[in-house]
Each structure stands twice: as structure tokens, then as C-alpha cells.
Amino acid sequence: MADTPSNMKPLGTKAPSFDLMDTISGKTLSLHSLKGEIGTLIMFICNHCPFVIHINPEIAKMAKEYQEKGISFIAISSNDVVNYPQDAPHLMKQKAKEVGYSFPYLYDETQEVAKAYHAACTPDFYLFDKALNLVYRGQLDDSRPGNDIPITGKDLRDAMEALLEGKAINPNQKPSIGCSIKWAAKSMDG
Known about the structure:
The chain is of the alpha+beta class. Helix content is 29%, strand content 22%.
């Protein structure tokens, strides 16, 4: 398992729009229908990555806490399901129920959304303000599978708290580390 860091998209970048199928409800949902009153957190995750499995309980916990404060949570899986069938949409729905996601888990079949966001790894976090400008991108916290550092969500929590309080978010942000997004062979060509 090679550790892949985030690409660290420039702060202030506008969130690219999308319309993707929600594996939980079966409906096509858009960024604009899902955006939060105060902020929007977009997470590129998947079912099988050990880094995502490691933090899943914290993601579910944070969502319940911050959704009621006006920050929307959106999870997207962009992995190639031909070579990684464990990330197929019907299994995404199953995983969402198993872990207790209170947010949509969208399937980016064409991988165009991952490319638009310059997503590199799972998990990859992007926090946008109410105008959908990027204010945080990077890690949840310093915990990784096997490093014995407790999962707190500190880095992401600090950014969300600052956003809620109308304070400046520290621009010194550490990239997330995880499994690489599993690109389909055809999407690597162009």
C-alpha cells in the first residue's frame, strides 16, 4: 500500500459543480442542492482503503455534529470498480448503512469529478465556505493506520470551527495521506 498525498488545490478555488448518483437514495444530486448554509465538506473516500476504514467512525461522528451547525458533508467515491469491485455502488450503499453515514455517498463513475477537484487519494478532504470557495484542504488529523496516534479529527475540526466562528483558517495545512484514487485505464489516457 503506497501512501499518496493530497494535491493541495489552491485555497480560494471555487468548487467545481457536479451531478452524481447518490448510492444511498438512488437519486442524482448536485453540489448546489447539497451545499451547506455555512460550509460544505467534500470527501473523496472509498470502501476498501485502510486509511478510510481507519477514520470512518470519526467521519460519521463529525458529520452528525457539524451538519446541524450548517456544514454539509458529501462523500464521493471515484474508484474504478472494474478493477476494484469492492467499491461498486451497491457496496457503497451497504458501507454507508454499516458505518452510519448521515450524508450522501456519491458515485463518480466517469471520474470527471475527481479530476475537476484534483483529488489524489482516499481520504481527500475539501472544505468550502458558503460561497463555495476552498478554505481548507488536507488531512483529518495525524492519525494513520498503525501509527497509534488517536483519531481526533483535529485539523479538520479546527478549520470547521474557524469557519463557523467567522475566523481566518490557518493556511498552513498538511496534506491528507491515503491510498491513491484507482483510475480507470481509459481515464489515464486523457
